[in-house]
Amino acid sequence: MAHHHGMNELEGMPAFCHYGHEHQRGDRFGRMFNLAPLYTPAEELRSLGAPGGPMDGGTGTDRTDSVPVGQIFFGQFVDHDITLDVTSSLSGVSSAGETPNVRTPTLDLDSIYGGGPESTPFLYRQAGRFPGAELLTGAHGTAASIDDNGSTVPQPPGLAQYDLWRSPDGTAVIGDPRNDENRVISQMQLAMIRFHNGILQTLADEGLHGETFEGEELFEEAQKLARWHYQWVILHEFLPHMCGEAMVSRILGNGRQFYCPSAKDLPFIPIEFAVAAYRFGHSMIPQKVQIQKNGSSLEVFGRTLGRGFTPLDNTDAVVDWHELTETEENRVVQMAEKLDRALASDLLDLPFIQTGESSLATRNLLRGQAFMLPSGEQVARAMGRDETEIEQISDAAQSIASDVDLSSGTPLWFYLLVEAEQIGREQEENVFQEGEGLGPVGARIVGETIVGLIELDPRSFLARDRSWNPVSDGIGVQTLGEMLTFKQVPAHA
Questions:
Q1: Higher pLDDT, 463 or 104
Q2: pLDDT score of 332 more than 70
Q3: Strand, coil or helix: what is 368?
Q4: Cβ atoms of residues 314 and 304 within 8 Å
Q5: More confident of the two residues 168 and 63
Q6: pLDDT of 225-236, one tens digit each?
Q7: What is the average per-residue pLDDT within 106-134?
Q8: CB hemisphere CA count around 411 (13 angstroms)
Q9: What are the distances in angstroms from CA 403 to CA 243, 249, 459?
């Protein structure tokens, strides 16, 4: 079997997988289940996702007990690392197997590294201590923006060190432009760039188990360690938060049952994951978030945080990751909203959508239909879930939907949100926590897909060295908070 983009044979992994897929391509989306599509009239879907409708959670707050809100923004960062669909629409029928995925379906941080120093040298500093190996940030230069009159507006003094590297017109020069679409995600992009640069510095100053690195080897070792720590955080913190410790342990210990690319396939992104299950985070985004100690709560889609694709122009938008993620410095952090059928009202009327459907809930529902997704009930039955449980979720979904007719079946995304609300995350064997994470079906789709993407990547630590742990390599980063604050400049006071 060719060893390319994750296609190395891992002993024991395929043996547990019993669900057959049609032939899939790694540069296309694919399907986890070969099931008949659900059709729901578009006007019913619009009613379900409309402002003031069954999915409108209002402007209040109902936070989880255990999921820091930084994990939800990290989930967006992960999504941008593995999926990008630029061809499908909400109005036409889309074929998963014919829809290109512009990103690589591996957790390789290509949104940070681009094509590497040779293919995308403009992402790397060519001078300084680590020429061609250090990633550029705003600290390496100044940024400006262009106003409505075409005039250049310099960035306010002192903010460049807290910003991304930008072109003279203010455009962020990064591996994935979506990671500049709002201030929080752009600050996470910056933190991950700094993480790589911090590893470079550590390897150069301290070496690794007595081994020193220079030039190209220094970059390659730093990139490998950054990827491995990133994958570790996903497996050991992010997935347990979202899918539950019990489900993640079950997948890692017993193997994947439903996400099983065949020997002739490259790893692919299932459409059930991309268009339904992995959109759980939309339910967990709060209306407001406090990003600085003793700072004000700011609207996520307001002027300060919601504006993207321009240079940082306000000290209030500099994120202190100690406030959004757990670190040694701060264990009391803001929590995400409950994972349920409700979305913050701002998400049902997105301010940056000037024409067309502005409700994120409706857009998700219409996109699921465009990709001909099966109903949640069908997927649950294909997974062998108990019929009593399926009826419980289906009845609850219809009750929540009220006058919206779901008699033909529940749209998969909505079913998984209701499942999270009714059953929730399995943190211990048969111990479920309502609203704290994904229920059994959603957790299985998300968990198997992400575990599979790591297992099937020959560069990952699961493929190359399962005995590796993040403490023994001298970097020591085990959590999201540690990764985002590793050798960072202090947050703006």
A1: 463
A2: yes
A3: helix
A4: yes
A5: 63
A6: 999 999 999 999
A7: 96
A8: 31
A9: 31, 40, 50
The owner of tokens 């992010």 is: 238
Count CB-CB contacts under 10 A for residue 459.
18
In angstroms, how far apart are the furthest CA atoms of the chain?
A: 68
Three state DSSP letters for 53-116: CCCECCCCCCEEEEEECHHHHHHHHHHHHHCCCCCCCCCCCCCHHHCECCCCCCCCCHHHHCCH
Give the number of C-alpha atoms closer than 13 A to the C-alpha of residue 270, restricted to the C-beta side.
28
Cβ density class 191-208: b for 16+ within 10 Å, e for less? bbbbbbbbbbebbbeeeb
What pLDDT does residue 248 have? 98
Per-residue pLDDT, averaged over 58-63, amounts to 94
Say whether pLDDT at 409 is over 80: yes
Whole-angstrom distance, CA of residue 205 vs CA of residue 196 = 14
- Spatial contact of 28 and 97, defined as CB atoms under 8 Å apart: yes
Q: 203 with 487: CB under 8 angstroms?
A: no
One-letter amino acid at 120 equals T
- Residue 201 in contact with residue 127, Cβ under 8 Å? no
User: What does the alpha-carbon distance between residue 42 and residue 405 come to, in Å, rounded to a whole number?
Assistant: 11
Residue-level pLDDT at 221: 96
Mean pLDDT of 64-74: 98
Residues in CB range of 226: below 8 A, 6 or more apart: 109, 112, 192, 195, 196, 199
Q: Which of the four pLDDT bands, split at 50, 70 and 90, describes residue 121?
A: very high
**DSSP state string for 270-335:** EHHHHTTGGGGGGGT--SEE--STTPPPEETTSHHHH--SS----GGG---TTTTS--SS----PE
Q: What distances in angstroms separate CA 259 from CA 30, 33, 43, 63, 109, one per listed residue? A: 10, 9, 33, 31, 22
Structure tokens of 64?
């989880």
Dist. CA 459–CA 476, nearest whole Å: 20
pLDDT band at 10 (very low <50, low <70, confident <90, very high): very low
Span between the terminal Cα atoms of the chain, in Å: 54
Length of the chain: 493
Number of Cβ within 10 Å of residue 49's Cβ equals 27
Is residue 489 very low, low, confident or very high in pLDDT (cuts 50, 70, 90)? low
